[in-house]
Design a protein that fits this description.
Blueprint (H helix, E strand, L loop, with lengths): L2 H14 L12 H10 L5 H11 L6 H16 L5 H18 L8 H5 L6 H10 L10 H10 L7 H11 L8 H11 L27
This protein binds a DNA duplex through helix 3, helix 5, helix 7, helix 8 and helix 10.
DNA sequence: ATCCCGAGGG
DNA sequence: CCCTCTGGAT
C-alpha cells in the first residue's frame, strides 16, 4: 500500500463505522479482561454465549474465585482450550485480589505478568479499557495488514511495530477495531469479499479467482 | 515448533 | 472432512 493511500484507507473505514468498539460483551474492566482472555482462538460470538451466563455470577475476581475451578469450567466448556483458560483465569483472579486490590492493573508489565495474558491481550485491555493507542495484532489484523500491504511483517510483533509507525495519529486508537471488523466480515481468511470491500482501491491484494 | 481444544462454516 | 476463530506458554 502506498503511503498516500493510508489516510484515505482509514477515512473510508471511519466513514462506514464512526465509533467502532469490541464485539465482546462486558460491563467492567475485569469482565473485559476475562472476556479477552477467553477469546484466544475462539470467536467472540462463542465467548459472549458463555460469559452471558458466567458474568452475572462471577463479575468480580473474588466472585470468580468463589465459583471455584470446576464451577468456572462448567460455564466455559463450550469454548476451545477451556481447561487451560479456566486455570489461567483462576490464577489471574488470585493475583488481582492479592496484589492489585481486586482491580485490573493499567501497565503492560503488570498485565503481561498475569497467567494467560500475553502481549495481544494486554494491548486490547490497554486500548479498549484505558484508551491507549496500542495495536493488538490478532489473526485478523495480521492477515489484513499483510494482504493490504498496510503493515507487512513475518510475525505479529513486526506487524505491530509497522502499524505504530504507519497509522496516522488521529486513527491510532480506533484503527484497531476497524482492522478487526474488516478482517472478520470482509477480508476473511478463506474467501475475502473483495468485490464488496470499501477499501479495495487502496489494497495490494488481488484475488486469484475473481469471485462472482 | 508444538500443544492446548469446542463450535461453526464450507 | 478441513479450516478458522481478537493466543499463550513451553
Amino acid at each position: 500500500m502506498k503511503t498516500e493511500d493510508i489516510e484515505p484507507f482509514f477515512a473510508t473505514l471511519k466513514a462506514a463505522n464512526p465509533q467502532p468498539n469490541t464485539e465482546l460483551e462486558y460491563t467492567s474492566v475485569f469482565e473485559l479482561l476475562a472476556a479477552v482472555l477467553l477469546s484466544a482462538q475462539a470467536t467472540d460470538v462463542g465467548v459472549n454465549k458463555a460469559t452471558r451466563r458466567l458474568f452475572p455470577v462471577a463479575g468480580t475476581p473474588q466472585a470468580m474465585l468463589d465459583l471455584g475451578l470446576d464451577g468456572l469450567q462448567g460455564y466455559i466448556k463450550t469454548i476451545g482450550l477451556y481447561p487451560t483458560k479456566a486455570r489461567n483465569l483462576m490464577q489471574t483472579c488470585r493475583i488481582l485480589v492479592e496484589q492489585h486490590g481486586g482491580q485490573v492493573p493499567r501497565t503492560r508489565e503488570a498485565l503481561e505478568a498475569l497467567p494467560g495474558v500475553g502481549r495481544k491481550t494486554a494491548n486490547v485491555v490497554l486500548n479498549v479499557a484505558f484508551g491507549q493507542p496500542t495495536m493488538a495484532v490478532d489473526t485478523h489484523i495480521f492477515r489484513v495488514s499483510n494482504r493490504t500491504g498496510l503493515a507487512p511483517g513475518k510475525n505479529p510483533l513486526e506487524v505491530e511495530k509497522r502499524l505504530l509507525e504507519r497509522v496516522p495519529a488521529q486513527y491510532a486508537v480506533d484503527s484497531h477495531h476497524w482492522l478487526i471488523l474488516l478482517g472478520r466480515y470482509v477480508c476473511q481468511a478463506r474467501k475475502p469479499r473483495c468485490w464488496e470491500c470499501a477499501v479495495a482501491p487502496y489494497c495490494d491484494y488481488r484475488p486469484k479467482t475473481p469471485a462472482s
